[in-house]
Amino acid sequence: MKKIIPICLVAFVLVTLTGCMSEEEKRKELLTTNDEMPIIQEVYKDYFPIGAAVPYTIIQSTQDAKFFAKHFNSMTCENEMKPNSVQFSQNMFTFGNSQKMVDFAVENNMRTVGHCLVWHNMNPVWYFKDKNGFMDPNLESTRELVDQRLKNHIEKVVRYYEDQDHVIERWDVINEVIEETESDGWRKTYWTEYLGTDVVAKSFQYAHEADMMDGEKNLRLFYNDYNTYDPKKRQYIYDMLKGLIDDGVPIDGMGMQVHIGLKYPEVEEIAKTIDMFASLGLDIEITEIDVDIYDVVKESQPMLTEEIDIALGHRYADLFNMLKTKKDVITGVTLWGFYDGWSWLNLTQFKALTPAYPLPFDRVLNPKWAYWGIVDPSKLPPREEGLQF
Ligand code: GLA
Prior knowledge:
The protein is of the alpha/beta class. Helix content is 41%, strand content 15%. The protein has 14 helices and eleven strands.
């Protein structure tokens, strides 16, 4: 009895104090990291793996790495698996940092996504050159050489990870070949200059052959692109994917990047795009989510105000609520980074001095409203407090 009284007293005081917490204090508590806050990957365990793309630096920082592995169960290397990282010099494959990242993912029971085998950016400078400089794309011999280089790169990189107990679950085989402002919808790149649009089918074929070298299919092979919800671009992509499927090209899925703004596009359009690609029988991955506030905020006044932060929270909530309804076709969701301090949007050319705020955690790893939008939108302050667009 003697013990019960003080316990009751403490409980009473605690309840009263919590009850007395001002709205501001409650909000502050929600926006401060603590051990009780929901863990993102647990909240999504019945939906899909949820990951982030990170640079090697994150893995090197004990605090960031721990936080990353706690909340996410899928890892994409931001740049470490791209061609200029793994084959900077011809035929000298260097997997150092990506290997350490893969080891980290394995140790922490995370899925590893391969990104990416073929792209028009971040290629080694020698790719389209010989010792005399750029090679003439009209010559059969140079086209063959570029084709061989494509095949060799894909084969070596795919096999390197396949031989480690199939550590990579799926690859973004080829990235961003559609450009809707071109009259034929194809982005003009060195790849298309040398290999034409066949570069897409070839890339999938080479990746598939590399996967099958041990006699079994372990990899899922994806096409990946941005602004896929743009109706014109979406149609070009759909037609290309359908053509590949009809031709028997070994493609398993469509990767939708989802680098979006606060206002554009409507979540409905993203949903429609998922349905459209899924109707082809493809798996869907949401590969690179972030939300840039500067489609609404003036870059001359770069600040995350409370209103914008709340609006960002609702934007994330709307997006993730919709993604949850598509869990039957979505095989994974990845954010492009997880905290604002490490986002490519801090570094983009025209915003070099503009701090970015596109992710669920802030620069010191405190949750933002965007985090609550992902894990529990019921905690968000009312939408009216955020700006309406
Ligand atoms: C594209 C690429 C990513 C990354 C982002 C932002 O979306 O697919 O690998 O480079 O741009 O930098």
